[in-house]
Specification:
It is a single chain. This protein has six helices and no strands. The longest helix is centred in the middle third of the chain and has 18 residues. It is mostly helical and 95 residues long. 74% of the residues lie in helices and 0% in strands.
Length: 95
């Protein structure tokens, strides 16, 4: 875990997210919490991570998501050298 993130406000945010029980609750909470561009950026990064984990190439990812190569590189670095958070999600969430 990145110790730079560990603080009381982040803990409270994560507890709040973990308390959500339905898709509708998620939509309502994140609609209140985030701007539309922030939410789109988060979901774009998750899609980029999913595509990278499936072995897709940058050009395909750019074409499908509209993400910049800088964003793709940043996500790729997290996949390869991060805390395995994406991996945990991909193992649990099936489309």
């Amino acid at each position: 875990m990145n110790t730079k993130l560990k603080e009381m406000n982040v803990d409270y945010l994560f507890k709040a997210i973990l308390s959500l029980q339905t898709m509708e609750e998620c939509y309502n909470f994140f609609d209140d919490l985030c701007t539309v561009p922030e939410l789109k950026a988060l979901s774009q990064r998750l899609e980029v991570a999913r595509m990278l984990s499936e072995g897709k190439v940058y050009s395909d990812i750019v074409a499908k998501t509209g993400a910049s190569t800088a964003t793709i590189s940043r996500v790729n670095r997290s996949l390869n050298y991060g805390s395995d958070g994406y991996k945990a999600i991909f193992e649990r969430v099936k489309e």
